[in-house]
Amino acid sequence: MNMWIPTEHEKYGVVLASFRGMVQHSLPLEIGDTVQILEKCEGWYRGFVLKNPNAKGIFPCSYIHLKNAHIKNKGQFEMVVPTEDSVITEMTSTLRDWGAMWKQLFVKNEGDLFHRLWHVMNEILDLRRQVLVGHLTHDRMRDVKQHITARLDWGNEQLCLDLVPRREFSMVDPDEISITELYRLMENRHRKKETPTPVSTHHLFVHLKSLMSSNLGEELEVFFFIYDSRESKPLSERFFVKLNKNGLPKCPEKTERQCTLFVDLGSADLRKDVYIVVHIIRIGRMGAGEKKNTCNVQYRRPYGCAVVSIADLLTADSKDDHLLKVYACNTESDWSQIHDNIIKKVNSRYNLSGTNTGLAVALQLLHGDIEQLRREYMVLFTRGVSVTKKLGFSDVIMPGEMRNDLYITLEKGEFEKGGKSVARNVEVTVYALDADGQILKGFVAVGSGEPGGDEYHTFVLYHNNSPRWAELIKLPIPVDLFHGSHVRFEFRHCSTKDKGEKKLFGFSFVPLMQDDGRTLPDGTHELIVHKCEENANLQDCARYLKLPFSKSNLPGNNQTLKGSKESLWITSFLCSTKLTQNGDMLDLLKWRAHPERISDSLSKLKEIDGSEIVKFLQDTLDTLFGILDESSQRYALKVFDCLVHIINLLQDSKFQHFKPVMDTYIESHFAGALSYRDLIKVLKWYVDRIIEADRQEHIQQVLKATEYIFKYIIQSRRLFALATGGQNEEEFQCCMHELFMSISFFLSQENKSLRPITQTQAVFLQSFPAVYRELLKLFTVREVATFVRETLGSLPTASQADCPLQAVKLHCIAKTVDSQIYINPESRCILLPVVLRVLQAHMQEQKDLVMCAHILTCMLSLLKREDTESTASEEVDLIVESVLGVLLRTILEVANRPHPPGPTLRPQIQDITGEFVSCLLALLRHMKDRHYQQLLQRFTSKDDLRDFLLHIFTVFRILIRPEMFPKDWTVMRLVTNNIIITTVLYLSDALRTNFLNDKFDYKMWDSYFCLSVIFINQSCLQLETFSASKRKKILEKYGDMRVMMGCEIFSMWQNLGEHKLNFIPAMIGPFLEVTLVPQPDLRNVMIPIFHDMMDWEQRRSGNFKQVEAKLIDKLDSLMSEGKGDETYRELFNSILLKKIERETWRESGISLIATVTRLMERLLDYRDCMKMGEVDGKKIGCTVSLLNFYKTELNKEEMYIRYIHKLYDLHLKAQNYTEASYTLLLYDELLEWSERPLREFLSYPMQSEWQRKEYLHLTIIQNFDRGKCWENGIILCRELANQYESYYDYRNLSKMRMMEASFYDKIMDQQRLEPEFFRVGFYGKNFPFFLRNKEFVCRGHDYERLEAFQQRMLNEFPHAIAMQHANQPDQTIYQAEAQYLQIYAVTPIPDSQDVLQRDGVPDNIKSFYKVNHIWRFRYDRPFHKGTKDKENEFKSLWVERTTLTLVQSLPGISRWFEVERRELVEVSPLENAIEVIENKNLQLRTLITQCQTRQMQNINPLTMCLNGVIDAAVNGGLARYQEAFFVKDYIMNHPEDGDKISRLRELMFEQAQILEFGLTVHEKFVPQDMRPLHKKLVDQFHLMKSSLGIQEFPAYARASPIQFTNGSPRAGRNSVANVLSPEGVARVVARRSPLSYPAVNRYSSSSLSSQASNEVSNITGQSESSDEVFNMQPSPSTSSLSSNHSASPNVTSSAPSSARGSPQLPDKPKHSRENCLSPRERPCSAIYPNPLDSTQRPVPHPAGDASLPRSDPNISTPDKVVKPAVSSWSLDTPLSDSNGKCPPVPPRPPYTGSPAKTRSQSPVMTSRSPQKSVVPPLTPSPTECQSAGLVSNSPMLSGSYSSGISSLSRCSVSEASGTETTPADHALPNSASSGSDEFFRRENKTPPPYCIHERNPRRQMPLPPSLSIHPNVDAPPIPPKPHQIRKQDTEPLRPDQFPRPRPIPRKVSQL
After folding, report:
1. Cβ neighbours of residue 1433 under 8 Å, at least 6 residues apart?
2. Which DSSP category does 490 fall into?
3. What are phi and psi of 1103, to 5 degrees?
4. 1056 φ, ψ to 5°?
């Protein structure tokens, strides 16, 4: 069996094809993966994929392409690095990273970047293939790599990846280079990316496409040139293009003749007054309109002109062609100025050449050097483009540039008529001739684009003897032909008659060079026109060259020519690098011919133009040194001065490029071997004269030339030594030493008032560093270093603060550090002390910091990391000793300076900081143990060491700041962090040694811990946020530095001992922030510190409340920032619980840990919910949970208030205005009506408590108004009005009263929808903590039905599963790792029974109390008990009634609240039947009343209801009840139900009576077209009576006939009571079981048989047509109405539906909608009373109304269909008894019926007496439901106390105590109880915290005596104020009559 063998060379490979790994121990591979190979065996490799090194396995060799690699650390931990090109490696890794991000771009719908990145990736892949092939040339490879890196950088920038530092296209390893160099690379790349360097050279590309015109027919010549309108002169040569008769280029195949490049435009040329001018000349007949004749002579004639500003091209799109308008002259004589006229818009002199004439031209500005353009626009230059130069030399004259161009402009001419009657048509022909008179072929150039010609013909102006041409021609005549050449101008008249003959009539000429060798001077020349009519006379040029050519050169006696009127004006301009027009230059160059002129020539050299000197630079220098060699004694000083002048001339930017020419001259052509003596002597003479000289300007010019003077000295000495074998060496050395001694002496002089030599010293220092390189040619490195040290050391140390010498000295030091002598280690040790001394002085004074940073950077970049030599170590010692301390102070100073305003990209101050930081990091990286030891030993005192450590810790905190480096400098940040942690590890020993125990220094340790915490929390160290490849690289290079620092923190903490108490609780927050970092090892290290803190705090204080408080405070802010997770919560809990197991304070510790853990649960849930986009119930519920947790368990009021406002904002965003009001009330309740000042908090300004409370009141009122909860707004309006009244602020009081009145109007006039309520169960462990395994009741939105609500919940919880039944889930559901939702509709049980039962209360008011302030809800489920009778299901149909009690009432601070308690009862079939008929009777009464009082717009609802009831009764509905309950068997078997059977019989007869009256009313109002239906109803009613066996109504029915006197429903008010009177109702209710709730049952065919279902539907009045419009209404004892919003939004439907597919009905198939039972499907009544015990039964009024039928006050009318009745009639007690709640309707006098037992009372408080007392009650206002508790007990509603419990309040009120008792007839009616269980729950249970129902007692408002109300006065027409108290007499109440106020809870601290 073969063994696995470790591989030697086969280490690295790339996967060629995917390998699925189907064999044992195989490793699956994907194509493109890179693998590292460990072993091989028989065609198999064993290894791992580099991206997942932990998974190892085997794979076939054939799947792997091997690549060369370099192995590091051979062995178990070996690392393989591919040896391929670094650019290829970077490409591969970068493309892999981009691949994943590219897919995410598609997911995020960033299509533009997605496609651009795709193209770039493909481009990089193509370039990668080219590089891998290896067939590229060196230059092409360089270009490809540059292109690749540019694309990589672009992609990294677009994807927000890191900036890659590169050198020569390759990534650099930060460990291999100095940090200063790394920073420089990063900075250069950053600057290149952000601020491209401005380009000073520009070029204009012009491409002529065509001339478009409708009247072409002749060939054209087009001339382009650049024109300066400011100077009125052309700036460039002309570009010449020939067009054919169609306006297209004549030679389309020669592209260089169609396009050109105007080169060398300066930035100053890109201005608005510089234009591109186009002149168009036609070639043809004299007149454009002439007929064609036999003459074939062609003339050049003006055609048109076009102009365009260059500035317009800067903003135009370069890809678009320009169509230039072409203009023509009105008068030909103005042709030479047409472009000026167009520019100046002199419209009278030109017009459009034609409406359709235009010149199509492509124009594009290109920027940069011409060579750069050749590389970037290779296609452009390859296909051919002509170059059009500027006139004259460019701004920068380059050496080697060869030009000899003579430009001649034919300006104008003046000619005589020549005997003709009209002016001539003059044409000028130009020739260039040599000395022999031969025409120079091809040297007459009209412009670029076309080759030069032999001659040139100007255009012809018709009949013009004074033509103006302004045509420019160029004569590029070679230098050797220039001497003796001349230019001849021939003048011809172009006749238009004599066959177009051109007749010669004269000529002019001009020689190009004068006899003395000077060329024709530049300028305008007036040439003489010589008469000549024969061409033969011009054959011999010698004859006419003897004639004068210019009128300026005529002798005085030649009056004939002077008086001639004919002249030709030309302008010449020579651009030559070889010829000169200067005579002084020629005299100097020919000095040997005229020795006597040497002195004058040398003196005049300074006056010669610099361009002339540089043209003849070498010749001039040879002349100077020739003179010096021959006459050194006589001319040495003048030659030296001339040499200085030339050297300084080259300093000019225009000629600076000629410095290499001089350097070349010195190295190759200079031959003055003896010159060094004279140069040294003259230079020393100047230096020695500096001190005594009065004028320093000339000496300063000499010192500026020091560099080249030394170059000449050194080269001369080298030539002399070479020629003589090194003779006179000692003499030379001596002269040089003397020269440097003179220099040192001159530098050592301080500034004097009369002879300021500081400037001279500065001039010398500027040029001195350039001498070092020359001195090294003759002296050793140490000798030169000594010269430099002595020279720089001689400078005065003390100088004036504003002296420029200090800055120059620093620049000199900088150049010295950059020079060769400092790079050499031998000389560096000599120069370093001088450099450090100057550097330290400047940094201490904070001057020239930019230069200081540069010097320090250069110094430290020379220190190699691997350099361990003693010299390098000594250098580090010197630098550390000299500048480390001042460097730290400088960084602190610079970093803390205020940044200049304005959006600067990279401010200079930031650059300085970065430079100094890189220097500090480089210095620290070079420091070893020995350096740290020496550094710490140098501190003589602890204070100095303390200051140093504080400084360095502070600097490190600065370095960690995010803004320290650009965000993409991750490489630099990681290097910085690595150095910081290394340094901290060194310095921590010093901290422990010197600042612990007795020498403990809190500030030192605090700075250390703060630095450590900030270090760990850096974003660049959060490896979890990086890609896998990036994380792997960082871990391999640096490890996880967070863990290292965390271990160091723990170690230092353990050393503190008892000093730990100094950091409790200050460091709790920072350490908590560290533990929240998602690094398991770091958490395991840091979490135990909290146990230590708890232990030490327990020792000190006996508790750890400080630890708890700080933990809780910081957790909220940190987790809201996204820190922490579920793993941390579990780890925190487990580690600390384990730590405290053996502690004595274990119990309190467990409590703390449990509290913090629960807070984490809620905070994590809150954070997860807040990540979602839209506001939903989950966000609101989570915020409510957290808000209550802060108040109840943590008692953190400030955090509580913050979350109040967060919840408020959520409600506003979701438009939950009512909930927003309740939420803001929580904060309002904490404030009082006081003048206590409050600080600025959240969005509130600094203000008094009264002002803030007023603002809150107004805001809450506004939101109550928007939420249509006007009843609550009225209460707040009253309280605010009371405050305004107490301050006599009648203006605001009036506004508040008007607002209150407007709310009353809105209550009565505006429509309000009754919301649905839904019970929601959240089951499963995957729900958030605040929802998990809990059930809630939710208040639905307007128009939201069950299906919509269910869909909304499923959208909020997309992973939830909707449960298909309404049963309580079992434990498997509770513990499942899933989410289950159980939703069904529930019916509210209102508490305000007195409002709903009171007669005459409008339905608009009742509807509010039916669905507001609801604590309890009900859900009914039908089921069959016992044997089911298939013939009649009613016999066994029971109802399971579930009552849910909430922790808070709805609406409240949330749309849903948790269910606190659930109760389950069963309703018998008989009781269920009673409820069904009772509710149907109530519905009938209501509709009859509304119809009779004309509240209905039509009678259809009554018709439908009557039809449904009568039809159901006829078809056997009521008969089913008779069969079920009236049979003998049932009566015998259920003797206890006798009263109920009687009650059912009475209700059935009552229904028949109501139907009869209803038919009577229906007949009165029924329209004519519905009469047949009415007749049918009457007939069916008689059938119904027959089926029920009713021949006539029984006695009790006849005793109370249904009659309405005058249509009033209140007729028969004093009738005798009957079974339907309140006594009867009370009797029936008293006999019923407490479990008997009146209800309406609606069943579907799925739960009942079809026949029974139809009967039930008939009984309940349900039909297909009326199902959505009318539902069952409550009985007289019921109190609530559930609103079902049907298809008609104007109708409010309140009855529940039957349950479909109940799980308790196994004999019927389940319906698919069982999971959520809608209101139409729910099997319960929508209306039911509160259960009444025997002590709380309502006492009937003796004078009850016996009239029938009577409406129930609980019936809600259809919205917007039925208007509220003005009055109503009722079968029930019309007024509330003493047990009833005070009505919220306009008050009536209280009844005097026997009072029932009352609960605790809350009398009105008018004083702040500590004793409670009982006072007579007040009659509540219509809106004070139950009592005025909302007003009295709320600190936000009133400043005084009032009695009673608010309808919005749920808080229990303590029993009134005192010695006096309240008379019975003055007792305040209590709230109607919903049962004894409800009573005790309300009395004994602590209500939920901080809801609107909890009102804290506040200070009383003194009651004005004038506002007290007499007891016998009727109730006021408006609700009374809270401080207005009704009593029997007018005397004010005594203070002892008021109860003692409750303790005021703790307030928020000065919020």
Report:
1. 1424, 1648, 1649, 1652
2. E
3. -155, 175
4. -70, -35
How far does the chain reach from its first CA to its final CA, in angstroms?
84
Closest CA to 1423 of 1085, 986, 1723: 1723
Mean pLDDT over 1150-1161 rounds to 91
Rg of the chain in Å (alpha carbons): 54
Q: Are 413 and 459 in contact (CB under 8 A)?
A: no
Buried/exposed code over 840-877 (b: 16+ C-beta within 10 A; e: otherwise): bbbbeeeebbebbbbbbbbbbbbbeeeeeeeebbebbe
Nearest partner of 509 among 480, 540, 465, 478, judged by Cα: 540
What are the b/e assignments for 1641-1655, b being 16+ CB within 10 Å?
bbbbbbbbbebbbbb
Count of beta carbons in the 10 Å neighbourhood of residue 1459: 19
Distance in angstroms (rounded) separating the CA atoms of residues 1297 and 1281: 7
C-alpha 633/C-alpha 1089 separation (Å) is 91
Torsion of the alpha carbons at 746, 750, 753 and 759, rounded to the nearest 10: 60
β-sheet bridge partners, residue 241: 222
In SS3 terms, 1529-1570 reads as: HHHHHCHHHHHHHHHHHHHHHHHHHHHHHHHHHHHHHCCHHH
The three-state (H, E, C) secondary structure of 1304-1331, written as one string:
HHHHHHCCCCCCCEEEEEEECCCCCCCC
Token pair, residue 690, equals 């500096």
**Cα(420)–Cα(1272) distance, rounded to whole angstroms?**
114
Place of tokens 């729900």: 1327
Half-sphere exposure of residue 814: CA atoms within 13 angstroms, side-chain side: 17
**Per-residue pLDDT tens digits for 1580-1608:** 888 888 877 765 555 444 433 343 333 33
Contact 1673, 1483 (CB under 8 A): yes
The Cα–Cα gap between 514 and 486 comes to 11
- Encode pLDDT of 92-142 as tens digits: 888 988 988 898 888 888 888 999 999 999 999 998 888 888 788 887 888
Give this prediction's pTM.
Answer: 0.64
Closest CA to 1475 of 1729, 1103, 1259, 1664: 1729
Burial bucket for residue 1319 (CB in 10 Å: 0-12, 13-18, 19+): buried
Count of residues for the chain? 1951
Residue 259 burial (CB count, 10 A) = 22
- Which residue bears the tokens 């513990």? 1375
Cα–Cα distance between 1195 and 1889 in angstroms, integer? 11
Which residue type is seen at 647? I
Q: Which of 213-227, 248-262, 1746-1760 has the highest mean pLDDT?
A: 213-227
Strands (E), 170-214: 170-171, 201-212
Burial of 593 from C-beta contacts in 10 A (0-12 / 13-18 / 19+): exposed
Q: What are phi and psi of 142, to 5 degrees?
A: -65, -45
- Residues 1303-1351: tens digit of each pLDDT: 999 999 998 989 999 999 999 999 988 889 999 999 999 889 999 999 9
Instruction: Say yes or no to pLDDT of 208 above 60.
Output: yes
pLDDT at position 1464 over 90? yes
Q: What is the mean pLDDT of the chain?
A: 77
Which amino acid appears at position 154 of this protein? Answer: W
Between 19-28, 915-924, 1581-1590, 1862-1871, the lowest mean confidence (pLDDT) is in 1862-1871
Distances (CA, A) of 470 to 413, 467, 1340: 10, 10, 91
For residue 776, which amino acid is it? L
Q: 379: which 2 tokens?
A: 């296609």
User: Is it true that the peptide bond before 1749 is cis, omega within 30 degrees of 0?
Assistant: yes
CA distances from 1781 to 312, 1173, 1826, 1904 (A): 86, 45, 5, 28
* Inter-CA distances, 1583 with 607, 1143, 1579, 1580, Å: 139, 88, 7, 5
